[in-house]
Amino acid sequence: MKRLHLSNRLIALLLAIAMLLTMAACGERAKPGEDEGPSSSDVSSQPKIPAFINPLEDVDLTPVAEPVAPEGELLEKLNKAYNVNNDVVGWIRVPDTLIDNEVLQYVSTPPQASDNLYYERKDINKNYSFYGCYWADYENKIGNRNELSQNTIIYGHSMSDTIRDDPEQDKFTQLKKYLDIEWAKKHPYIYFSTAEDDMTWKVFAVSYVDTKLSYNLPEYKDQNFNELIAELKDRSQFDIDVDVTPSDKILILSTCTYPTGYTNKAIDEATKFLICARLVRPGEATPDTLEMAVNPDPKKPQYS
């Protein structure tokens, strides 16, 4: 049976309906704009609904999206990786790249920011590896699509032996393939799944950002979330026809980039390359390609 997402707003509205029905039974009807009931702070802080407004109008009754249980090869990969290390929380795959690996997350007790460095230079066996793993931000909630944080962030290294940002090199360097607009058009989806849910994400921005931008918080207020999406789109190399609202879940793949080729280490270290995607909505069409155009004037990273 599908569950309904009953927000506090909806509960308050339903209580208001009950109050209106009670007054009608007593032969009284509140006048538009007139306060009703006791004036205590607990009651007056609740929203007051004028009698001439339909209390159920504009209420979101959208069912909670049903998770899709992983099957077949994906489930086998997840189980195998988890049996090696129970810090495995998911699997990331970007078609036609070398990115097809487990995602780990380390959270100490109590959690601390340094947890984000735990798998920076470790492999799945917790042995030293210069290449590290793909790892989720320590503050992210991981589970099915309804349990995930509003913003899931996955980090990975850009690895290149000779040429910085060579998209043919290993790890998240492969994400630089998205800088080719024709390639990007044909690869509009990223697949990040957990043991509880097989999920598809639609790319909405290919962005260079500075570390001053708070792009890696797990949750935002609606206004701040809208501001973040606007920033990511403004900084995107392409204008992509994908809308994002505060009710959506997003995925950000974050990696290093080297705009100065290490001639200015401070700028290189303060710059990140992001692929940003939105969770595909229930029943949403998933065409093989996405409409996009070159952004003629992407907002540049802000270093000062």
UniProtKB/TrEMBL annotation:
Superkingdom in the source lineage: Bacteria
Catalytic residues as annotated in Swiss-Prot or TrEMBL: 157 (proton donor/acceptor), 256 (acyl-thioester intermediate)
CDD domains: Sortase_B
Keywords from the named record: Hydrolase, Signal
A GO molecular-function annotation: hydrolase activity
InterPro entries named among the record's database cross-references: Sortase, Sortase_dom-sf, SrtB
Signal peptide coordinates: 1-24
Pfam families registered for this protein in UniProt: Sortase
Record's protein name: Class B sortase
Lineage start: Bacteria, Bacillati, Bacillota, Clostridia, Eubacteriales
